[in-house]
Amino acid sequence: MERNVRSVAKLAVASLVVAASTTVMAQWPKYTPTGVPVGADGKLDANAAVPRTSDGKPDLSGVWEITRDPNAPPPTAGRGGRGGGGGGSPFGNIGNSAQGGAPYQPWAADLVKKRMSDNSKDNPDAHCLPMGIAQLNAHLYPRKIIQTPKEVLLIYEASGTTVREVFLDGRPLPKKEDVEPWYNGYSVGHWEGDTLVIETTGFMDDGWLDVRGSPLTSAGKITERFRRTKFGSLELEETIDDPKAYTQPFTAKVFYRFSADTQLIEFVCLDKDANHYVGNTAPAPK
Amino acid sequence: MTGFRVTAIAAAAAAILTLPLRASAHHAFAAEFDAKQPITLRGTVTRVEWINPHTWIHIDVKDADGKVVEWMIEGGTPNTLLRNGLDRKSLPAGTEIVVDGYRAKSGLNRANGRDITLADGRKLFLGSSLTGAAGGEASADKK
After folding, report:
1. Whole-number Å distance between alpha carbons of A271 and B53
2. Which residues of chain B have a CB within 8 Å of the CB of A24?
């Protein structure tokens, strides 16, 4: 036993060394784009003013990575930093930042309990299927926003490098019964002051809002409110309104920091155990 | 350390190792691996599958009788490893490594790699889904 304890101590120290020595790298060599404000130390001045587009709107463009809620107490050892965002990150549990957790309908609560006891093995992302907007928004991997006056593109590194189109050209949100349901639905956006409001509907059934398996159904609507509070910070309030799965709408919060010298890395997911490439060759049931 | 050694330690001790490192997990670590079965393997890299959603490092390990046994070590995604300073050229075939990780529940010669140590003593974090994994949180906060 003494030897085991020694091994544990050794391994723990080794892990710390590794954690401290990791460097941030990507495939593109480091390159800081022009137009990024730097402080006297030559590093990004995250407190600089929010940049604006020629039409006066805040410009949300850039690569963004999740960070902790700047107003939350520091995470405690162990569970605190998990889920990437910490401080109540919705990645593991969409109800983390909602008072009392997500207000599940009874069937949804039962389903989540079952999925957790299954260790989330059926999470679409575990099978190289789209993880859905809520998991993408809270994911560790960066996302890039490209803003134009009539359309905003959100490119997420995760889930097979997902692209979302958000139309700001005045078209109405389609009625869900008028469109083919999509994993990530149909999105339109508008500005309310300095906040970009994105409404999305037209989802498939059986979406996963988080790793524990909180469901999103075809009755669901997600409203995202993005606000860039300073050059280096972006905040998201994400309201889930899905009366089929939840007793009332609830809101999750995600915080981002601007990444001046990171680019997205291609993510192609290969599910070697899947048979959907060749279809189901079993005879049809009689 | 000759051959390969399986170090079994208590669950409480394993918990100490669970540092909140940056990693990504779509399902709980416990779906496939056993945190109560830490393992240390010394072997030679035969090939690396540099694919999402998990890298797999294949190593030949000599057991106590000198017989060579193949083990497959699951690492994080190539994206996670790239950001931690590893790439597909980091572990060419023939590289001697020591892997610290956790055994698969299936009983097959598979393990989830936490980190690896190279011959020159350098340690590389493998992006194990146990360390800092949201999936772990999902199973830990059962109500």
Report:
1. 8
2. 83
